[in-house]
Design brief:
Layout (H helix, E strand, L loop, with lengths): L8 H9 L10 E6 L7 H15 L3 E6 L3 H9 L5 E5 H9 L11 E13 L1 E2 L14 E4 L5 H12 L9 E4 L2 H10 L4 E6 L4 H9 L3 E2 L4 H10 L4 E5 L11 E13 L5 H14 L15 H4 L9 H9 L4
Parallel strand pairs: 1-2, 1-3, 6-7, 6-8
Antiparallel strand pairs: 3-11, 4-8, 4-11, 5-9, 10-11
Helix pairs in contact: 2-9, 5-8, 6-7, 9-11
Length: 317
């Protein structure tokens, strides 16, 4: 369980005014669910851990690997205090829509971070969209990951399913890249930041084509889940990718357990990320300009009261 400080901020201030020596902060141990190897969330989680442990006295952060759906269930179920999430899945979880069997509770928003893009790299330049993938070898992330749900959504929008594929592999992003390199897969579907380090490695190793999502396919995806938004991979994001690629995606954000994370702790965590969040741009470039106003964007998931307090103090709410 999350350990709350034994002294409130007000009590510490009173102790100082009376000339008393404040007791050292009680250790706060946070379990933070991040992402799989090869994706942005794993290194980003490590950077956030470093910021929180430096900025919040007595705070210790334990990183656990995770994925979009697993993180929501872990935080909701009290197995973790904090995690990365994707807006599409968070909204589905709070509503109890598939792939969730029941409504999730105790999910509070800490703040939005950056857009995640459904990226579809292929080694076969004859493919133009997901509709051309029938009978081909696909690789995507394991079941229980938001990427895998997104892969099925795109195939469905193109009139296909896993049964129409020659083979479907479920693996990490880094393993999926290796499968494309050695011909074990023809196409990959992954939802991550732009540019992604593993995909940069892939595009630096061989020529790759990124498939677009057609307007008709996007409309079908949007109809099934309102969390999808139209996004574009700008030209020259990856080597030899000279044209923009129209795709779909949604924001990534941080979630907290509403009950096990105290208001004071949520405030301290959010304040630390407002202060130093732009340092995360070393991992996800778009975060280099992130502001408190960017973080507090309304995404349909309620803010933790402690986070709301930090945003109000920063003048962003």
């Amino acid at each position: 369980m999350f350990k709350k400080p034994t002294l409130s901020i007000a009590a510490l201030a009173l102790a100082g005014s009376l000339g008393m020596t404040a007791a050292p902060a009680v250790a706060e141990d946070i379990v933070f669910m991040t992402g799989p190897a090869g994706g942005s969330w794993y290194p980003l989680g490590g950077a956030i851990k470093n910021i929180l442990e430096a900025e919040v006295p007595g705070m210790s952060v334990t990183i656990r690997p995770g994925a979009g759906l697993i993180n929501l269930k872990g935080v909701s179920g009290g197995k973790a205090h904090m995690g990365f999430s994707l807006v599409m899945s968070a909204v589905d979880g709070l509503s109890g829509k598939p792939p969730f069997e029941e409504k999730l509770s105790d999910i509070c928003n800490l703040g939005s971070l950056y857009n995640n893009f459904l990226q579809v790299p292929t080694t076969d330049f004859s493919f133009n969209s997901a509709a051309d993938l029938k009978g081909k070898k696909l690789v995507t992330l394991p079941r229980g990951n938001t990427t895998e749900v997104g892969a099925r959504a795109l195939l469905q929008a193109a009139g296909l399913s896993y049964d129409d594929m020659e083979k479907v592999n479920f693996s990490s992003i880094s393993d999926g890249v290796n499968m494309l390199k050695d011909g074990q897969a023809d196409v990959m579907m992954t939802i991550t930041s732009v540019p992604n380090g593993s995909l940069l490695d892939l595009t630096n190793s061989r020529k790759i084509k990124f498939l677009s999502i057609t307007d008709e396919q996007f409309a079908a995806m949007k109809k099934e889940n309102a969390g999808w938004g139209r996004l574009t991979i700008p030209a020259n994001t990856y080597p030899n990718q000279t044209e923009p690629v129209n795709i779909a995606g949604f924001p990534a954000h941080l979630i907290l357990n509403c009950s096990t994370v105290s208001e004071e702790s949520a405030y301290n965590i959010t304040k630390a990320l407002i202060k130093r969040g732009q340092e995360l741009g070393a991992i996800v470039k778009s975060l280099s300009t992130m502001t408190a106003k960017d973080m507090v964007t309304d995404i349909g998931v309620p803010l933790h009261p402690g986070s709301a307090k930090a945003y109000k103090e920063a003048g962003a709410l």
